[in-house]
Design a protein that fits this description.
By secondary structure, the protein is an alpha/beta fold. It is built from eleven helices and twelve strands. Strands 2-1-12-11-10-3-4-5 form an eight-stranded mixed sheet, with helices on both faces.
């Protein structure tokens, strides 16, 4: 079933909110069940757009109205009247996507499931500190064993396609925690250069790092007046001038050195029969699988010759550590959002915490598209339970109906 609920905190004792008996009961007005096994019927319409169904406020319709810019008296109130300084335009509907969205494409999630990477205790390994101790061992014994060198064999799924199309139906922006690059591989062509931020990086790109960090996270911040904070806005000191690839530019997979390492990491060494090529074989189920490549030296930066890391945000790095993560744009989108929509995320990183906190404090509607409910993190969260392959196309259908009703 597709299960849509308006969430209230459960006041469980382990969260410090008293006893579970104090929880507010969920009203039938805030619950919608839609079966994917029968043809879905939209609410009766359309003299003045889609009317609310007899079963109560339809949360998907409310979100669709926000996206297409058509308000209704029964919809959630708009965010409070706060000062807006948004150089990136408008009051966007901000979608923040996580690994659950790409699961439909066959990519394992980061924390959930038996094949989750998180279950293999990478906290102490996915850091600059660990890399500097043994760069070659870091690649061969950790990174290449847990992450692919690229995601060329995976395709965007219908969830990615829907989100791409939604960006053309209203002021929709997308911030993804995923490093697979699938948002930019959709068949639907959209302005991903301006409307997408890959806040945790992208596998297949690389970055240089200095021998010693001068731009690491610290508690001081010269810009305490910012309502949303993901990173520091200081110039960053010497790291900005050592090498352009350390903070401003990304290294393409076809630019890393030496050439034989480039070939191994890109999977092209197999054509020459090199020993470090990616090996393909059949598993016990007859499926084609790949063994991770092994390299004899870490990849090097074409700009300064230092060993370089994948363009992925590590645990001891801040969002401000490289311009690829575009933290200032994300801060602006959160600050000016008319709604925040989470899709397939486990709510375990800074960006989700910051967005949830700010939305709660400023009464911004929050939607959670997921296979599980968001419990006791903030009031007023609207949970849309089910596969994104079902829920997101339904949202798009509502948006199209609302748009067509105006013509």
């Amino acid at each position: 079933f597709l299960h849509v609920t308006r969430n209230y905190p459960n006041y469980s004792s382990n969260m410090g909110y008293g006893t579970r008996s104090q929880a507010k009961k969920r009203s039938p007005e805030n619950t919608t069940l839609l079966s994917p096994n029968r043809k879905r019927a939209l609410p009766p319409a359309f003299e003045d757009g889609i009317r609310r169904s007899k079963r109560g406020s339809n949360s998907l319709v409310s979100l669709a109205r926000i996206i297409v810019g058509k308000s209704d008296p029964g919809d959630p109130p708009p965010p409070d009247d706060r000062k807006r300084k948004n150089p990136n335009g408008g009051d966007p509907v901000l979608f923040i996507t996580g690994a659950g969205l790409s699961a439909e494409s066959g990519i394992p999630t980061f924390r959930g499931g038996s094949n989750a990477i998180w279950s293999q205790s990478l906290w102490s390994h996915a850091t600059r500190e660990a890399f500097r101790l043994d760069p070659l061992g870091w690649y061969n014994d950790f990174w290449l064993c847990n992450f692919p060198t690229h995601y060329d064999g995976y395709d965007a799924n219908c969830g990615h396609e829907v989100l791409a199309e939604l960006t053309e139906m209203g002021d929709v922006k997308i911030v993804t925690q995923n490093v697979d690059g699938l948002h930019s591989k959709t068949k639907f062509k959209w302005n991903c250069e301006e409307k997408l931020v890959e806040a945790h990086g992208r596998i297949g790109l690389y970055k240089c790092i200095p021998d010693v960090d001068t731009d690491s996270e610290c508690e001081s911040d010269d810009d305490d007046e910012r309502p949303v904070k993901l990173g520091r806005r200081e110039s960053g000191g010497e790291i900005r001038t050592v090498c352009a690839y350390a903070a401003k530019k990304s290294i393409g997979a076809d630019e890393i050195l030496p050439i034989h390492v480039r070939a191994a990491l890109n999977g092209t060494a197999a054509a020459s029969g090199a020993s470090n090529a990616v090996k393909r074989m059949l598993n016990e189920r007859g499926e084609v699988v790949e063994e991770s490549p092994e390299i004899d030296t870490p990849p090097k930066c074409p700009g300064c010759g230092r060993f370089c890391l994948p363009q992925a945000l590590l645990f001891d790095e801040g969002y401000h550590s490289h311009q690829f993560y575009q933290f200032e744009k994300v801060e602006s989108w959160i600050e000016n959002a008319s709604a925040v929509v989470f899709v397939g995320t486990s709510f375990s990183v800074a960006i989700t915490d910051v967005a949830l906190k700010y939305a709660h404090e400023h009464h911004i509607p929050v939607y959670n598209f997921n296979i599980g409910r968001l419990e006791s993190r903030t009031k007023g969260v609207i949970n849309v339970i089910g596969s994104a392959a079902v829920t997101l196309p339904l949202l798009l259908e509502y948006c199209k109906q609302l748009t067509n009703s105006e013509k």
